[in-house]
Amino acid sequence: MPDDEATLPIDELLRAVEAEDQSAVRAMAEEMHYADLAQAFQELEEEQHGLFLKTIGPALAADMIVELPDSLIEEALGAFSPSELKVLFHELSDDDRVDILQDVGDEARLRFLGLLGPEDEELTRSLLKYDHDTAGGRMTTRIGRVFASQTVKQAIEMLRRSQESTETLSRIFVVDEKGRLIGKLRFRDLAFNTWDTPVRDIMREIGTERVLATADQEEAANMLLKYDLIALPVVDEFGHLLGIVTHDDAMEILQEESTEDIEKIAGIGGEQSEETYLNTTILTQFRRRAGWLTGLAFVSILSGYVMMRFGSVLSQVFLLSLFLPMVVAAGGNTGGQASTMVIRAMSLGEIDEDCTWQVAWKELRTGFFLGALLGTCMAAFTLVLLPFFHFALPPGLTLGKVAFTVAVALTTQVTSATFLGSLLPLGARAAKLDPAVVSAPAIAAIVDVSGMVIYFSVARAILGL
Amino acid sequence: MPDDEATLPIDELLRAVEAEDQSAVRAMAEEMHYADLAQAFQELEEEQHGLFLKTIGPALAADMIVELPDSLIEEALGAFSPSELKVLFHELSDDDRVDILQDVGDEARLRFLGLLGPEDEELTRSLLKYDHDTAGGRMTTRIGRVFASQTVKQAIEMLRRSQESTETLSRIFVVDEKGRLIGKLRFRDLAFNTWDTPVRDIMREIGTERVLATADQEEAANMLLKYDLIALPVVDEFGHLLGIVTHDDAMEILQEESTEDIEKIAGIGGEQSEETYLNTTILTQFRRRAGWLTGLAFVSILSGYVMMRFGSVLSQVFLLSLFLPMVVAAGGNTGGQASTMVIRAMSLGEIDEDCTWQVAWKELRTGFFLGALLGTCMAAFTLVLLPFFHFALPPGLTLGKVAFTVAVALTTQVTSATFLGSLLPLGARAAKLDPAVVSAPAIAAIVDVSGMVIYFSVARAILGL
């Protein structure tokens, strides 16, 4: 969340837009960070968008547009003439340009590609080959690159020539004559060494800190996280250096993936878009949630069927109703906890394929202890508090027997639900599915059914109904 | 997840440890990234730890130990003698040193502080003043810092002298005579300008891209994310530059916070530690989950109480049991979806205080549409499929009336549960609580009760029971 200082310039800008003071708007926009500019843009009324964009011009608008939610990008680009769009696309870094072209419609993409210079167009087309969610799809090719055979002086001159077009010189990568990645340097390594030092002598070799262009973006982000990198080099299958994925992309990727996990666990479907919550329409919200809800509702009918079949048990001992929702819900809660822990641990790369049984065994024991605790609590509740309420019990039944029933049913339900909650995501992965598809509501719906069966069967056996 | 290439050197190292080939272990450890080294360390047997640490020595072990889970850090440090520990602590960057000292026990902290040189000790003590989860607690003070009044030549010489102790020169910060932050530079800005250029002329001014040392670490991480920064300057209330929070810290913070959100939403309590899932003991797991489970179980007894009170309704029309679990669960599912969406959007800074009613109104409508959809599905199911099963109905009741009951109850339950699911986290924030304390299971437990009341009341009214 931005602090109070940060909102000040945005508010000032909004006031200037309101007052239609175009020169003030332009001056302020020049001083502002593109992320703040994007925030201000989204607070404007829709009919103010066009004039605002024209006022700040394509060069300043370029970086800002990248920060906008998908639904606003095509509209914002529509405010500019073809010649202004040329300027805008030229301002963008290559990965941002590709991002935008992937977000707009097919017709607009072709039109925009035609506006690029021949060099930019070729580069953009080659990057568009990679899926949006691969390392290649997220990389920038404008990187500092020198040859191992160069001297420090030659390397600095080469970097100086490419300075304008380079996204970051924080890390400089070293290639051999064939363009294969072999090492890296920091700018200070060049600056603090004598001019005739060979690059090969001062570079650090790069071992495993690289990623294939076709690898999933999450793999790239996790490597940047693991190795604390500013930039991760992207290579093809022969080791040729193609580009880098930068730290800011990695942060965005990790945030997107976390949001996706959270939503899937809660039973919200569909791809997580780059839209913010408030920018998502009710129709989209409806679509993403309706599927799971409807499916789960039909699973719940099974629970109802079990309840109906055992209806006579409830009408013989009304008191059993008091604990039914609790036994059932306890399974859903603990199963959801277990699956959530396991899914998150898998996302963080903490659980390998070969610890499946270690995890399941751990959860089985945790589940048993949790079930025993709950069972004991509820048995104590039944024996200590319920006598004050003078519930009518059929002849031959005692509160002691009811307490025992509840304790046994709860322990069984919680143990089995915890075990199942950990096994289902592990099973999903073994079946090459995303573990997060096993949402907490899905587990709850399943163990609702088993909970009903467990509760009524235990009651029948112990109470002799 | 590491790719196949990445696991190779780790496996090789493990084989060398197994073969007790100490010179090979040392040679390999020198070539490896500390993150890989930490991974290898955790795969060793516990009795191999001591020899392994002695073999690689304190200098190489330093960065590796920072990457270990909390529970292993104090044990690992115990393998070294006081003189080796001096070397180890000297190798660490100041923020990592503080991190470690915050993780160990009080007695160990005092002992380790005594091993630092006077300068390091003073610095470390001053950093320990900041809470671990503030910007000050995560910052490093070893930064590139130059004065606005210097020339490029003076600035480069100053940086060269402090080269050894500086964590990153990717961003160099510019201060005035009083040490107040006023701008920033990239190394290339110095390298590609003439030596007599004043720093003031080539620096870029820093506006809102700074954070107070006492601010929450999440605020710092979100600013790094928003502004795509490599390093965020940390200042005191007077604007004096104290240090920086770097991009890799920001990534860790964001991952930790996401995990915490996910766990809280699933009803898992307590602070999220830096432990991995497999390193957490069953006792810890039990403690973190038992609280919510037990509390929710008692809330569920309320549902049971409602069910018991309305028991006569169920025994008059057995068919109503078929839909009871479904109506109740649909509320829990949709309420959980709504709260999850709202909590995540708040974490991402997408919902300000002043859009509370906008969000609630949006969820109210989404909830109504979802409820109407479910209600229609279930009414159709009742009218089209149930006649085939020839359920006995009391005189005067028709399947049409039952279908109408289910549809009305479902729509009411889903609408109110969705509305409540969005309002509770917003209310928690208004009450200065963490919105994520409103876990999905808690919402489910609450709307279970209201669902029972809604279902039975609607049934009584429509069916005249």
From TrEMBL, chains A, B:
<keyword id="KW-0472">Membrane</keyword>
<keyword id="KW-0479">Metal-binding</keyword>
<protein>
    <recommendedName>
        <fullName>Magnesium transporter MgtE</fullName>
    </recommendedName>
</protein>
<keyword id="KW-0812">Transmembrane</keyword>
<dbReference type="GO" id="GO:0015095">
    <property type="term" value="F:magnesium ion transmembrane transporter activity"/>
</dbReference>
<comment type="subunit">
    <text>Homodimer.</text>
</comment>
<dbReference type="InterPro" id="IPR046342">
    <property type="entry name" value="CBS_dom_sf"/>
</dbReference>
<dbReference type="InterPro" id="IPR000644">
    <property type="entry name" value="CBS_dom"/>
</dbReference>
<dbReference type="InterPro" id="IPR006667">
    <property type="entry name" value="SLC41_membr_dom"/>
</dbReference>
<feature type="transmembrane region" description="Helical">
    <location>
        <begin position="436"/>
        <end position="458"/>
    </location>
</feature>
<feature type="domain" description="CBS">
    <location>
        <begin position="203"/>
        <end position="260"/>
    </location>
</feature>
<keyword id="KW-0129">CBS domain</keyword>
<feature type="transmembrane region" description="Helical">
    <location>
        <begin position="368"/>
        <end position="390"/>
    </location>
</feature>
<comment type="similarity">
    <text>Belongs to the SLC41A transporter family.</text>
</comment>
<dbReference type="GO" id="GO:0005886">
    <property type="term" value="C:plasma membrane"/>
</dbReference>
<dbReference type="Pfam" id="PF01769">
    <property type="entry name" value="MgtE"/>
</dbReference>
<feature type="transmembrane region" description="Helical">
    <location>
        <begin position="314"/>
        <end position="336"/>
    </location>
</feature>
<keyword id="KW-1133">Transmembrane helix</keyword>
<dbReference type="InterPro" id="IPR036739">
    <property type="entry name" value="SLC41_membr_dom_sf"/>
</dbReference>
<dbReference type="InterPro" id="IPR038076">
    <property type="entry name" value="MgtE_N_sf"/>
</dbReference>
<keyword id="KW-0813">Transport</keyword>
<keyword id="KW-0460">Magnesium</keyword>
<feature type="transmembrane region" description="Helical">
    <location>
        <begin position="402"/>
        <end position="424"/>
    </location>
</feature>
<keyword id="KW-1003">Cell membrane</keyword>
<dbReference type="Pfam" id="PF03448">
    <property type="entry name" value="MgtE_N"/>
</dbReference>
<dbReference type="InterPro" id="IPR006668">
    <property type="entry name" value="Mg_transptr_MgtE_intracell_dom"/>
</dbReference>
<feature type="domain" description="CBS">
    <location>
        <begin position="139"/>
        <end position="202"/>
    </location>
</feature>
<dbReference type="InterPro" id="IPR006669">
    <property type="entry name" value="MgtE_transporter"/>
</dbReference>
<comment type="function">
    <text>Acts as a magnesium transporter.</text>
</comment>
<dbReference type="GO" id="GO:0046872">
    <property type="term" value="F:metal ion binding"/>
</dbReference>
<feature type="transmembrane region" description="Helical">
    <location>
        <begin position="290"/>
        <end position="308"/>
    </location>
</feature>
<dbReference type="Pfam" id="PF00571">
    <property type="entry name" value="CBS"/>
</dbReference>
